[in-house]
Write the structure tokens for this entry.
Amino acid sequence: MAIVVNMPRLSDTMEEGTVSSWLKKVGDKIEEGDILAEIETDKATMEFESFHDGFLLHIGIAEGESAAVDSLLAIIGEEGEDVSALLDGGSATPATEETSETEESQPESTTEAQTTAIPEGVEVVKMPRLSDTMEEGTVASWLKNVGDAVEEGEILAEIETDKATMEFESFYAGELLHIGVQVGESAAVDSLLAVIGPSGTDVASVLAASSSLSSDSSPTVEKETMTVDIPPTTTMESSESVTATPIVSTANTSERIMASPLAKKMATEKGIDLRQVQGTGEHGRIVKRDIEQFVPGTAATGVQAFAPKGQESSEDIPNSQMRKVIAKRLAESKFSAPHYYLSVEFDMDAAIAFRKQYNELPDTKISFNDIVVKATALALKKHPQVNSRWFDDRMQLNHHVHIGVAVAVPDGLVVPVVRFADEMALPQIGLQVKDYAVRARDKKLAPDEMEGSTFTISNLGMFGIDEFTSIINQPNSAILSVGAIVQKPVVKDGEIVVGSTMKLTLACDHRTVDGATGAQFLQTLREYIEQPLRLVI
């Protein structure tokens, strides 16, 4: 009997996935455990195994296409089995040409709109949702011009999301008839991005049909309709920012520098010689962030190294999608959760001596951050109220300890999670945190490595910050801000001596953590940090 395989939910925040590649084709024999496909989420590309034996009878989502969780991904059954009844059942939404008749019964479907009101062979390409948190995308560069031939699988554009700048492939073949979002412009998900179809198509009628079929996208279409009337000469003049090739020639024709069109445009505006820039994109390609982060040793030819003294200057840097999402989530946390703060100062002399002795052991090295993570984890076990999570309908008291460790990355902040931190040895915590930090900056963390935290620690002590407060990482109920260890005069046994102290601030959600509860947690934390032998016995 045939089995319907739906798009899996590969993380707790995943709403849709993109099929990067199929490792099996229709007609192939499938065994349980075989890799069916590689599926891309907003955070990683993951292999998806088959849980069933049989033959691959139908593929519902073609390579490069995206679909919502629980959409029909594939059908597995006996060789030659008729699956037409499953396709006609309407419980799934296959995104291939085979299921176009099924999709015609869904009024809101893009496929229906294209087949019933838009000329045959013409495809309206919408702004894709490339991550579960993406609400809009910014076109970093177009790799095709209006009038260019487009083959299925070719890169149409580079689109910047809240997580990364990603290449967007065409799922259709034809001529690029219209560009709806120009380089550097942003548009909401599902806004009209481009039109692909046969040469000579009446683009104005396609845009009008698209507008009438989707009231939500009408503002975008009106804007795009205006661009249709731009004379060909104007299009040619602006082709530098919408170029068909990412290869930039230097004065030496034998030397070619790989750079995105947007990077080339920004370099020209800033007077940067691309030969001095180290590319961090694929195959060493120079991309937008390389230009933004470039600090020249000397100015490029014909450009002043510094503005004249006393002259005002500024530049506007568009907010990245990651920065927009961080801003939105922090604002929601700050203004929805009633924050209050408890500050303490710990004596670190014993912890300093403990760390020195510990690091004298062979092949062992721990940091003060490792000590704080371990001590916090043990204290949370004794105070589950602080280790809780707030939801609109309930409060979840966690008896396991998963500590999120805030890591700064070039575009913002990510919080990988040290799971069961209370059960880990200090060196294990240190190795895992270091591994997370390296992979976070390379955007190589898996989705499940950034999910499920019950408490968060943010440490700015290594930057010389003595004391600060943090915004709670919801749905957690608290976050601990860790400052630097400083030497100062302290009173011990009635005498003023030089001692080492560290300030910590606990931000609490008053809906779950009362003031006395937070204070008791900090008392327990003090016992572990000021008596560090308790961490290992």
